[in-house]
Amino acid sequence: MIKKIVFATNNLNKIKEIQAITPSNIEWISLAEAAIFEELPETRETIEANSLQKGERAFELADLPCMSEDTGLEVEALHNEPGVRSARYAGDLSTSEENIDKLLGALHEIKNRKARFKTVISFCTKERIIQFEGILNGEIAQDRRGSNGFGYDSVFIPEGQMKTFAEMNLEEKNQMSHRKRAFVKFLSYLKLNQHDSSK
Ligand code: ITT
Description:
29% helix, alpha/beta, binds inosine 5'-triphosphate
């Protein structure tokens, strides 16, 4: 049975990454296809709460099972900043380039480059709301490298790797990414709970 799920995101890069690892029994409905044109709120103080806020609002509007996700980059030497503020690190309307400039500036001459990406997926149905976390440890490069991917990919080197995410192709990133880790948990939940709201 094909399960139709709204993927509550406006980030086309996230859709591309998830599409590449989606089994054929899941059909994604975009926000536009679900006739959701308002910007989903992201005003909470944690990644978990923001993920939930987006998912709950989408579910209210779509009345179909909704999957949302929120991701943040937590840098040890910066007390886990930018974290939940990753998209707005350099200001409310900041671009990824400006966010990376600020990050590299904040880490200037700092030896500890340890960081992690954290993704929290929220799945909202009429029966329940459930969350799945994916974490990937790594470090922040001295400078940008590579041109694939999006966001902070050009400065993030996953643990045990030489390349930044932006030097990897989609398949390589998807083998290890925080998003993939959370999504795999979500898929096994769906497999075990196939009856869970087809609405
Ligand atoms: P939605 O809320 O519509 O899903 P968004 O782009 O606002 O899309 P997030 O709030 O989850 O997504 O993203 C927070 C920031 O982290 C933002 O600057 C992203 O570019 C960045 N980011 C998210 N996932 C990333 C990844 O896999 N690699 C690099 N940067 C990422």
